[in-house]
Specification:
The chain is an alpha+beta fold and 266 residues long. The chain has two domains: 153 residues, no CATH class; 103 residues, no CATH class. It has seven helices and 13 strands. Bound molecules: zinc ion (ZN) (2 copies). One zinc ion binds next to β11 and α5.
Length: 266
């Protein structure tokens, strides 16, 4: 049952990862919040709030797609979960019922056999299909992740600039930043880390540029399941170095290595 969905999710991985990055650029994942970031899930007020230093920066209505229990390794739809009020899933339940590919699994009481990463991807896929910006994986009691379908509307946000696709830091927090779109790019720290990762063995007698050129010509781990979010390619034809949120392909590494070289020379 989940195999068909796994395929659909994989096909849409670039859109799904872009959605994740868009949400995480506004509020980092629970385990990785910046010092001044907090979020509030208010089931009674039917609301999800993002705050930067006590000021509400974004607001969204609250729709719950499902919950993941870390101790039981199971996924539950909200309508099988007594602790979730009906109004917090009614809207999305209606939209989900209209999606053919989901029909077989919406009646299931518990979904097992996949990990939380899969369900996070699946919930993002569902959120996008249902017209939301994406999913925020709110944490409850450290044991349960609540996948919220959100449409984050700015309230009083400071413009924090672009977000690094590798570490989710903001443009203003790093020495320099290589932009890949209006919202995203890669930060100087991640570029430096990448250069360390690809640095040649002294004994091999290769230069950094030679290593990169060689990797650009080899298919490496392609077709990788990790997309490159920097060039927005789902299956880059070259090796991809994985980060916690996305990967970066060697075509892009070649570009940033050039910029890194310029910055180190000046
Ligand atoms: Zn970074
Ligand atoms: Zn790339």
């Amino acid at each position: 049952m989940l195999t068909t969905l796994r395929k659909l999710v994989e096909e849409d991985v670039v859109d799904i990862n872009a959605a994740k990055l868009r949400i995480f650029s506004r509020i980092n994942p629970p385990q990785n919040l910046l010092e001044d970031e907090t979020y509030f899930v208010n089931q009674d007020a039917f609301e999800f709030l993002v705050k930067y230093a006590d000021k509400v920066a974004y607001r969204s209505s609250l729709q719950i797609i499902g919950t993941w229990s870390h101790s039981h390794a199971t996924f539950l739809w909200p309508w099988h979960n007594d602790s979730i009020a009906k109004k917090n899933y009614l809207e999305i339940q209606e939209k989900m019922s209209a999606i053919d590919e989901l029909k077989d699994i919406l009646g299931e009481t518990k979904l097992t056999g996949e990990d939380d990463y899969f369900f996070f991807q699946l919930c993002n896929w569902i959120a996008l299909k249902c017209g939301y910006q994406g999913v925020y994986p709110a944490s409850y009691d450290d044991n349960v992740t609540v996948y919220l379908a959100v449409n984050l509307e700015p309230v009083d946000r400071d413009d924090r600039g672009r977000t690094c696709v590798m570490c989710m830091c903001k443009e203003y927090q790093t020495k320099y930043f290589v932009a890949s779109s209006e919202e995203f790019g890669i930060c100087s720290r991640c570029i430096e880390n990448l250069m360390d990762v690809v640095a040649p063995d002294e004994a091999a007698g290769e230069s950094l540029n030679e290593v990169i050129e060689r990797k650009c010509k080899s298919t490496g781990n392609a077709p990788a399941i990790i997309p490159c979010q920097l060039c927005q390619t789902a299956k880059p034809d070259v090796e991809v170095i994985a980060g916690p949120y996305t990967g970066i392909c060697f075509h892009c590494i070649k570009l940033v290595a050039g910029i890194h070289q310029e910055k180190s020379d000046t």
